[in-house]
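thought: user wants a sequence for this fold. calling inverse folding tool.
action: design(structure=
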């Protein structure tokens, strides 16, 4: 188990998770070419705290896990905006998932992804990620399938640098992701993981309304050119790659 920084385990809630990640992302503060992208829904409160403190833009990277039909929590892959699909071939093979079943699950999740994009974004324009420093944020990772889909989608849009920032994830998942992005920030990497919610005191499901409210607040704040007051100090250490 590896732990660094000032995060307390178990993490109180997603807001506390975001606040604990802020000092590890200080180099991106005030950068006009940096943007924080949240993986909805759980990643939005975490990303909101980061974007607010670092005075960065906040937006979404819609992704959906492709769960096994008989075990939704186990990811056999993920999809992201732009037609991106990432598969965990080992899970698909071990559980004997055929192409028809895979396509059925993918189509269902695509409909949900598109629904969320419509209600979350409304008429707010999509961000231009070309030559941007993109910080991808979630409330934690298990297999990493959804994050890999997000990474692939961001890369296809021409990002200059891709950073993953999450409070907790298995050590082996983080090790694999370091090979796919420019930097990984994850202060808590237990070898024995089980589930993300195990490491939180409050892991209540985030509602669509909460996502919309946080996005609207962030977008309105950036339009007004103001941020909430924060005092940020750099963390002594962080878990990062490259």
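)
observation: tool returned 242 residues.
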């Amino acid at each position: 188990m590896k732990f660094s920084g000032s995060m307390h385990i178990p993490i109180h809630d997603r807001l506390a998770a975001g606040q604990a990640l802020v000092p590890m992302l200080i180099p991106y503060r005030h950068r006009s070419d940096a943007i924080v992208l949240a993986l909805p829904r759980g990643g939005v409160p975490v990303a909101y705290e980061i974007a607010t403190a670092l005075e960065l833009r906040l937006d979404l990277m819609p992704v959906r896990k492709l769960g096994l039909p008989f075990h939704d929590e186990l990811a056999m892959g993920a999809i992201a905006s732009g037609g991106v699909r990432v598969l965990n071939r080992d899970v698909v093979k071990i559980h004997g998932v055929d192409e028809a079943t895979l396509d059925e699950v993918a189509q269902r999740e695509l409909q949900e992804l598109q629904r969320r994009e419509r209600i979350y974004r409304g008429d707010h324009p999509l961000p231009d990620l070309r030559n941007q420093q993109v910080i991808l944020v979630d409330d934690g990772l298990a297999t990493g399938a959804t994050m890999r889909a997000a990474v692939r989608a961001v890369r296809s849009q021409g990002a200059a640098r891709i950073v993953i920032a999450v409070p907790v994830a298995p050590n082996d998942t983080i090790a694999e992701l370091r090979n796919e992005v420019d930097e990984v920030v994850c202060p808590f990497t237990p070898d024995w993981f089980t589930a993300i919610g195990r490491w939180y005191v409050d892991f209540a499901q985030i509602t669509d309304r909460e996502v919309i409210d946080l996005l609207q607040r962030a977008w309105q704040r950036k339009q007004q050119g103001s941020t909430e007051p924060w005092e940020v100090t750099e963390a002594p250490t962080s878990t990062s790659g490259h």
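thought: summarizing for user.
answer: Here is the designed sequence. Residues 2-62+122-224 form a domain with the Rossmann fold fold (CATH 3.40.50.2020).
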